[in-house]
Specification:
The protein is of the alpha+beta class and 678 residues long. The protein has 26 helices and eleven strands. Strands 1, 2, 3, 4, 5, 6, 7, 8 and 9 form a nine-stranded antiparallel sheet that branches. Strands 10-11 form a two-stranded antiparallel ribbon. A hairpin with a 2-residue loop joins β10 and β11. The longest helix has 29 residues. It is globular, with a radius of gyration of 29 Å.
Length: 678
C-alpha cells in the first residue's frame, strides 16, 4: 500500500472520470425520452416526502390552509394534464351557517395561478391543462392548493380540503431535452465517487464499479420513480462534497504528511459524522424555537440584515452574525424552494439547520487540525471522533435544531485554539465573531482577553486587537450605513432577564436548589436578605470560579493547563449563574477536545459530561419523553431521581475540576517510597 494518498493532480489526469460523467449524461438524456404518467400514492410513506401541508396517511388526506406537492424534474418543456380529486366537506364546521356553503380552492403550478375551483362536500374530479411554458425546461411540477379552513371540535388540526387523488399525464412527444439539474447532479456525483474512491486508495476497477452502480441506480430511478432521483442525488452529492472538503481542509491545515490509512480515517470520520447529521436534519426540530427562528429568517431575508432588530426584541435578541447565518438559508429557500415562507415547511427546517451543522463540522475540523499539529494521527482521530460523535452535539445541531449555541461555539473554539497556538490575528478575529454571534460568548471574553495579554507575544497584541476591530467593523457596516446600530445595542443589551427563572432545564446547582420546580422560581427573588438569586449566581461565576481561573491564568501556565482553564470557565458558566439553558454546555466539548491533546484528565471530563449532558437534553425534551412515558409508564417514577443523579454528578465534576485548577502550579506530592529511593 502506498505511503500517502494519490495526489489530486494525478487523479485529475485520469481519463476514466470524465468518460464516466459523459456516459452518465448520455444515460440521463436517454431516460428522459420516456415520459410516463405520474400518480401520487396518498398511502405511501415514500410519496409523502413530496408533500407539505397534508395530514395523516390514508386513501384520502386532509390539507391545511396551504398544501403543496413538489415533484421535481418530471417532463421538461412539455404540456401536462393535471387531474385532481378534491372535496370540501364541512360537516364538522363549528359554525352551522358555513356547513353548506361551497368552498373555493386556488390552484397554482410552479407559482402561476391556474384555476379557482368551486367545490362542495362530495368528491369531484377536476382536469386542468398545464401549458409547457409554465412547466418550463426544469420539468418541475410544484402544485399549491389554498382554501379556507376550519377547526373541528375536539381536533387541533386546521383543515381545508380533502384530497382523494392527484395525477398528471405528459402531453409532449420525443425527442426531449433533459433538465439541467439531474443531468449535472448525477454526472457530478458519478465523477466524484470515482475520484474520491481513488483518492482513498481504491483501485481503478473498484472505483469504476462504484461509479457505474451510482449511474445505473440513477438511470433506473429516472425511469421508475423520477421525482425522487434529483433530491436523492443532490443530498448524496452534498454529503460527498462536504466530507471531501472537510477532509482536505483538515489535511492541508494539519501541516503534516499523512499515510493513506490516516487519510482514510479522517475521511471516514467526516463522512459518517456528516451523514448522521444530514439524516437527522430532516426531523422537525424544536417547534416553538423554529417558529421564532423562521420569523427572524423571513425578516432578514425579505428586508435585509440591517432590519433584524425592527421586530419583537425578544425574538430578534441575537447579535448580527447570527442573523447573517440565518439570511443565507433564507435566500436559498426562496431561490430553490418557494418565494413564500411557509412556517410549517419541513424543507425550510432542513435548510435552516445547515449553517448549524456545517459550522459544527468546522469545530470538528478545528479540533482535528489542532491535534494533528501536536500529536500522532491516531490520537488526533480519537480526539476528533470524541467530539464528532458526541450524542449531545448531534442531538443539538441536527435533531433538535438549536440555531444559536453551535454557531458561537465554533468561534470560541477557534479563539482558544489560536490562544494556545500563539496566533494573535486568529484569536482576535474569532473572539470578535463569537461575541457578535450570541451574547453567551461574553462569558468567555474576560478569559480570552487576559489570556491574550499573558500568553501572546507583546509585539503581536496590536495585531490581535486590529483583527478583532476589522472583523467587527465588517459585521457592523450595514447597521452603521442604515443607522440601526442603536436598535442593535438596545436589543442585545437587554438579553438578561428574558427568562427570569433560576434555571431553564440545565442540570446545575440551581436545578438542585429548585428540586424539580426551578422553572417556577424567578431569579429576581431574594435568596438571603436583599441578595437575589441572580446576584448570587453572577457572584459565584464571576467572583469565585472566574477569579480562580484568571488567577491561575495570570501566572505562566503550560498549554494543557490553559486549555483546561478554558474548559473550566465553560463548565462554571453552565453550573453557577441563573437563567441557564441546557444547551449552554455546547462550547465546552470543543474546548475539552483541545485540552485532551495535552492532558489525559480531559478524556475523563469529556466522557462523564457527554453522558450527563445528553440525558439532560433528552429527559427535558417533551417530544422525546412523551412517547417514552406512554410506552413505559414506569419511567415517570424514575425520571426525577435520575435527573437528580445527573445534576449531582455535574456538581461533583465541577468540584473536582475546581480542585485541579486550585492545585495548578503547586509541586506534586512525593510518595514516601519515592523519597526513600531518591
Amino acid at each position: 500500500m502506498p505511503a500517502s494518498p494519490t495526489s489530486w493532480q494525478r487523479l485529475l489526469a485520469d481519463r476514466r472520470w470524465p468518460l464516466l460523467m459523459a456516459v452518465c449524461a448520455l444515460c440521463v438524456v436517454l431516460a428522459y425520452q420516456r415520459s410516463t404518467p405520474f400518480r401520487l400514492d396518498l398511502t405511501s410513506r415514500l410519496d409523502a416526502t413530496l408533500l407539505e401541508g397534508f395530514y395523516s396517511a390514508g386513501p384520502v388526506r386532509w390539507t391545511a390552509g396551504r398544501a403543496a406537492l413538489r415533484a421535481p424534474n418530471l417532463w421538461p418543456g412539455q404540456s401536462a394534464r393535471l387531474t385532481l380529486v378534491l372535496s370540501a366537506p364541512r360537516g364538522d364546521e363549528p359554525d352551522p351557517a358555513k356547513r353548506d356553503l361551497p368552498v373555493t380552492a386556488a390552484v397554482a403550478v410552479n407559482g402561476h395561478p391556474i384555476a379557482d375551483l368551486l367545490m362542495n362536500a362530495g368528491p369531484t374530479e377536476y382536469e386542468l391543462i398545464i401549458p409547457a411554458d409554465i412547466i418550463g425546461p426544469s420539468g418541475n411540477l410544484f402544485i399549491t392548493l389554498q382554501a379556507p379552513t376550519f377547526v373541528p371540535p375536539a381536533d387541533l388540526r386546521t383543515l381545508a380540503l380533502l384530497v382523494a387523488g392527484i395525477s398528471a399525464t405528459p402531453m409532449g412527444q420525443p425527442p426531449h431535452l433533459p433538465p439541467a439539474e439531474p443531468l449535472l447532479s448525477l454526472s457530478a456525483l458519478t465523477g466524484l465517487v470515482y475520484l474520491w474512491l481513488r483518492r482513498l486508495g481504491s483501485g481503478r476497477g473498484l472505483a469504476t464499479g462504484a461509479a457505474a452502480l451510482v449511474l445505473g441506480l440513477g438511470t433506473a430511478g429516472l425511469l421508475i420513480s423520477r421525482p425522487f432521483v434529483t433530491p436523492a442525488s443532490n443530498r448524496l452529492l452534498y454529503l460527498l462534497i462536504v466530507a471531501c472538503l472537510t477532509t482536505e481542509l483538515t489535511v492541508r491545515l494539519g501541516q503534516r504528511t499523512l499515510s493513506r490509512r490516516a487519510y482514510l480515517g479522517i475521511a471516514m470520520l467526516t463522512l459518517v459524522a456528516f451523514a448522521i447529521r444530514l439524516a437527522l436534519a430532516h426531523t422537525p426540530g424544536d417547534h416553538d424555537n423554529f417558529i421564532a427562528f423562521k420569523m427572524m429568517l423571513e425578516n432578514v431575508t425579505t428586508r435585509g440584515v440591517a432590519a433584524a432588530y425592527e421586530i419583537d426584541p425578544v425574538i430578534g435578541a441575537y447579535p448580527p452574525v447570527h442573523h447573517y447565518l440565518l439570511a443565507i438559508p433564507g435566500h436559498l429557500y426562496r431561490l430553490f424552494i418557494s418565494p413564500e415562507f411557509d412556517v410549517a415547511s419541513q424543507r425550510l427546517n432542513f435548510i435552516m439547520k445547515q449553517p448549524t451543522i456545517l459550522l459544527d463540522m468546522l469545530i470538528a475540523v478545528t479540533v482535528l487540525v489542532y491535534a494533528l499539529r501536536r500529536t500522532s494521527p491516531r490520537r488526533a482521530l480519537l480526539i476528533g471522533a470524541a467530539y464528532a460523535f458526541n450524542p449531545g452535539i448531534i442531538y443539538t445541531t441536527s435533531y433538535n435544531g438549536q440555531l444559536g449555541d453551535p454557531l458561537y461555539a465554533l468561534f470560541v473554539t477557534l479563539a482558544v485554539a489560536g490562544l494556545l497556538a500563539g496566533q494573535a490575528a486568529s484569536t482576535g478575529a474569532a473572539t470578535a465573531l463569537a461575541v457578535l454571534t450570541k451574547p453567551q460568548a461574553s462569558a468567555f471574553l474576560p478569559f480570552l482577553l487576559v489570556g491574550a495579554l499573558r500568553r501572546l507575544p507583546v509585539k503581536t497584541l496590536p495585531r490581535a486587537f486590529a483583527a478583532g476591530a476589522l472583523v467587527s467593523l465588517a459585521v457592523l457596516t450595514p447597521f452603521l450605513l442604515t443607522g440601526t446600530v442603536g436598535h442593535l445595542i438596545r436589543t442585545v443589551s437587554t438579553t438578561i432577564g428574558h427568562g427570569p427563572r433560576i434555571v431553564s432545564n440545565a442540570f446545575n446547582i440551581w436545578w438542585l436548589w429548585g428540586w424539580g420546580n426551578a422553572w417556577q422560581i424567578k431569579d429576581t427573588g431574594t435568596l438571603l436578605g436583599p441578595v437575589t438569586y441572580r446576584t448570587t449566581g453572577l457572584a459565584l461565576f464571576f467572583g469565585v470560579a472566574y477569579g480562580l481561573a484568571l488567577w491561575k491564568l495570570w501566572t505562566p501556565r503550560k498549554t494543557g493547563e490553559v486549555a483546561l482553564l478554558a474548559g473550566f470557565v465553560g463548565l462554571a458558566f453552565f453550573m453557577l449563574p441563573t437563567e441557564i439553558h441546557e444547551n449552554y454546555l455546547f462550547p465546552l466539548f470543543g474546548l475539552l477536545a483541545l485540552a485532551a491533546v495535552h492532558d489525559r484528565r480531559a478524556w475523563f471530563l469529556d466522557a462523564i459530561l457527554a453522558i450527563t449532558w445528553f440525558f439532560n437534553l433528552a429527559t427535558t425534551d417533551v417530544t422525546l419523553m412523551r412517547p417514552l412515558m406512554k410506552a413505559w409508564p414506569a419511567a415517570a417514577a424514575v425520571q426525577f431521581p435520575f435527573q437528580v443523579g445527573l445534576a449531582v454528578i455535574n456538581v461533583a465534576v465541577l468540584t473536582v475540576w475546581g480542585y485541579w485548577v486550585w492545585r495548578m502550579g503547586r509541586p506534586e506530592k512525593v510518595s514516601r517510597t519515592n523519597a526513600t529511593v531518591q
